[in-house]
Amino acid sequence: MGPGNEAVYVVDDDRTVREALSALLQANGKEVRMFNSETEFLSIERKDGAACLILDLKMPGMNGLEVQRFVSERVLIPIIFITGSGDISSTVKAMRCCRLPHEAY
Fold first, then answer.
1. Residue 10 counted as domain residue
2. Model-level pTM greater than 0.85?
3. Staple partner for 30: which of 21, 25, 49, 61, CB 3.0–4.6 Å?
4. Is 93 a domain residue?
5. Residue 86: pLDDT band by 50, 70, 90 thresholds?
6. pLDDT for 18-66, tens place per residue?
7. H or E segment at 24?
8. Could you give the C-alpha distances from 5 to 24, 29, 30, 48, 68, in angstroms and in order?
9. Domain harbouring 55, CATH code
């Protein structure tokens, strides 16, 4: 993957979800990298120019909100959360966590 390439990262502990999302995204021309844990994802060196992170909210290790906070302190990357058990509190926390400065809108 070169510096100008677009990548979508899928982080989910459910293999079926990872593979389904990957197939859908690849069918639409996206380059996909799948990870079965936040630890695996956080250990990589990103070499893409633009990216998006699709992140499971509920995982056995760090939850998605903790990963969002960690990632957002280091890089600017759009994050899409997926979950089988969402709630209003988690939604609000995700939206408040990493707002861009007003000038960036």
1. yes
2. no
3. 25
4. no
5. low
6. 999 999 999 999 999 999 988 899 888 877 666 889 998 888 887 778 8
7. helix 15-27
8. 18, 12, 10, 5, 22
9. 3.40.50.2300
